[in-house]
Amino acid sequence: MACSRCRQCIDSLRPDASPSTELSDASGRGSGCQADLCPFRIQVDGFSGSGPVMFNLTIRNGDAVWQVRRRFRQVRSLHQSLSQTYLARGLPAPPPRATVRSMVFGQNDRPFLQERSRRIQLYLRELTTVIPYVEQCEALYQFLCYLHLPRWRGDRVLVGGGAPPVDPNVVTKLPRALPLEPSEGEEVPDKAAVCVVCQEVMDVKDDIRVLPCKHEFHYKCISNWLTKRNTCCICNGPAVLSAPHFT
Questions:
Q1: Residue 37 shares a structural domain with residue 124
Q2: pLDDT on residue 153
Q3: How many domains does the chain have?
Q4: Is residue 223 part of a domain?
Q5: Residue 62 is part of which domain span?
Q6: Is 83 a member of any domain?
Q7: What parts of the chain have a pLDDT lower than 70?
Q8: How far apart are CA 216 and CA 193, in angstroms?
Q9: 175 Cβ partners below 8 Å, 6+ apart?
Q10: Residue at 171 is within a domain
Q11: What integer pLDDT is reported at residue 222 of this predicted model?
């Protein structure tokens, strides 16, 4: 028997279903629903502007919540990018460029844009069931997580982009570094690594936290850093969007 969330997904596909951008409730958790495989939750809150129209997305991942704004052409570009990979055959159909209503009333018709919002939300939710490990898919990761999508400059240098800052509540859940295991017959060695933020040697008694990339920092240093930018100070890669591994 399908869980309540699965039934809601099926009901949303009925021809007589009214447009809705409400998030499914969590009552289906723990019942084997396919949607629970991906920790990302996507909601299209609405749209704004007229040239171009921007769709407002709220993304949830664990304790982290952030908003991004996307154009419809960026949704289509995402689909085109994924279609060139081995995932092509399993991808859901993207929202159509036009409908009968848009051809009669124009692309800025409000009911048409409301329906397009619903279709974008449905497409992205289906996409995350096909690609549940979002962090491992660069195109989808950037689309959902970067406040501003990067673009190519004339000299082919990628500029712009950047993942959102990390919620302070998420930073507190970063795991502590394990003490170094001594070799047989030796004493526990002092931690000689230097925190690259404060340039101080990290002592075994300090509160040292580990990012998913395995780099270690003083908690007070990395917590201040991550609430301003979501990158590791050493490898410059995205540090953490939420803490699904630590909750």
A1: yes
A2: 56
A3: 2
A4: yes
A5: 4-152
A6: yes
A7: 1-38, 150-165, 179-192, 235-247
A8: 8
A9: 209, 210, 246
A10: yes
A11: 85
pLDDT at 165: 66
pLDDT of residue 29: 37
Which residues are within 8 A (CB) of 190 and not within 5 positions of it... i.e. 6 or more apart? 203, 204
The answer to whether residues 243 and 143 belong to one domain is no
143 token code pair = 């689309």
- The CATH number of residue 104's host domain is 3.30.1520.10
Q: Are 108 and 116 in contact (CB under 8 A)?
A: no
| CATH number for the domain harbouring residue 206 | 3.30.40.10
User: Residue 214 has what DSSP assignment?
Assistant: S
Q: What is the pLDDT of residues 149-181, one digit of tens each?
A: 766 555 545 555 666 667 777 788 888 887 655
Give the CA distances from residue 160 to residues 30, 51, 140, 142, in Å, rounded to whole numbers and listed in that order. 39, 21, 16, 11
Model pLDDT, residue 37: 54
